[in-house]
Design brief:
This protein is an alpha/beta fold and 454 residues long. It folds into 4 domains: 127 residues, Rossmann fold, CATH 3.40.50.2300; 161 residues, P-loop containing nucleotide triphosphate hydrolases (Rossmann fold, 3-Layer(aba) Sandwich); 74 residues, Helicase, Ruva Protein, domain 3; 40 residues, Arc Repressor Mutant, subunit A (Orthogonal Bundle), CATH 1.10.10. Helix content is 48%, strand content 14%. It has 19 helices and 16 strands. It has a 5-stranded parallel sheet with strand order 2-1-3-4-5, with helices on both faces. A 5-stranded parallel sheet has the order 7-10-13-6-14. α1 links the parallel β1 and β2. α2 runs parallel beside α3, α13 crosses α15 and α18 packs across α19. The radius of gyration is 33 Å and the shape is elongated. It binds adenosine-5'-triphosphate and magnesium ion. The site of adenosine-5'-triphosphate has 17 residues, from α7 and α15.
Length: 454
Amino acid sequence: MSARILVVDDEPNQLVTISRILGRQGHEVLTAENGARALEKVRAEPVDLLITDLNMPVMDGMALLREVEELPARPATVVLTGYGTIQSAVEAMKHGAADYLIKPCNPDELKLVIDHQLEMRALRTEVANLRREVSRHQQRYGALVGESPGMREIYRLIEAVSRNKSTVLITGASGTGKELVARTLHARSPWASGPFIAVNCGAVSESLLDSQLFGHRRGSFTGAVQDQEGLFQAAHGGTLFLDEVSEIPLGLQVKFLRAVQEREVLPVGATRPRKVDVRLIAATNRDLRAEVEEGRFREDLFYRLNVVNLHLPPLAERPEDIDPLIDHFVREFATSYGVSPKQVTPAARERLALHPWPGNARELQNVIERAFALSDAEQIDLDDVEPALSGAAPRPPGAASPSRPARVLPLEDAERDLIAAALEQSGGNKNEAARLLRIDRQRLYRKIEKYQLG
Ligand SMILES: Nc1ncnc2c1ncn2[C@@H]1O[C@H](COP(=O)(O)OP(=O)(O)OP(=O)(O)O)[C@@H](O)[C@H]1O
Ligand SMILES: [Mg+2]
């Protein structure tokens, strides 16, 4: 390994001898006769290694070490010392010198010490570069995990749309990471320091959603005791995340369209619209196009929202992401439970790999959390995951994802399986299961009875 080395000594003989040895070993050598001159040189042009005497006029070796310590491209430093002054070499090492050489130094010793220091420095640089790389990667995709082609495509799209303000529609089944993607998009955008405001459009009544989103004037309805700014305005200069956007009642969709189109809102009871500057991200686990066809969602609003579509594939379609997600959630829960990360046994991993994951990443997250909550063991074994998975049979290896059945079933069996899967995904919540199946509750109750799923 050849390097640029600066040798500092007030004895010209020493400089000549050491320079000659280093030159023969293939290094580029600079010299200086005191600390002040040396400092000028390293400031002008960085060096890889500095070898310095301690006792020198003008600026001594210790003072030089202290100054060099502050430099952005700090070289490795080695001090030269006589037999009688080893104590000061030790002192110098406390001040940042990496090693010392005793005068007169012989070529072999010089080579040994220098090579070692250069190697250490190369390692340090490499580690620093890797750290930077990792943190750049984390900044880029937030906490998103997975290197499957499907996730890579998501990263590519995030990269492409984060810089502009186009409206983004994130689609994908429940638990696939839609909200996480929305947050990542915001964090990667130029207005990341602005607010990120999430609204669940399905959680409240039409009138409440109206005043929540658009605000209201004092006295515009009973209970409106003061002017209230809506979430659209609160998100000004940032991102407004409209979760479960398919649930916006038809009656509100026109008002919504206007807000999206004109970037202005009309608070309930107000006569004058307010301008807002927000990036809109909408998310849904429904097929919004089908909602349009069935007359439940305005087509014009759909096109306004669906400018860029990010579709998150279900976990079962990207099985290579399961292992990295297991590790990610294990680290996450180890941190939040304040324990060291647990090993996941190969048997447990194999079982998790075969699960069809109807609840996607969130379901996997729940399985790992359960293992942390219920067991103190240092590893997560088959027994710790199996009970949480019992609802669904393991996917036969190599079989197609559950959305494309591998074989044709009698219709009744298929219906029974679908209803069981919906109940599992909804955690036994029949309202939610009915919603997933898009049938009404009464009909679901009849089917549950028929197939004795209750
Ligand atoms: N690719 C991923 N990497 C890391 N964590 C993920 C990933 N995908 C999902 N998660 C985690 O899984 C959980 C569920 O994700 P999220 O809430 O974003 O899903 P969602 O699609 O919004 O679900 P829902 O439709 O039910 O609202 C979150 O805790 C999220 O952090
Ligand atoms: Mg969500």
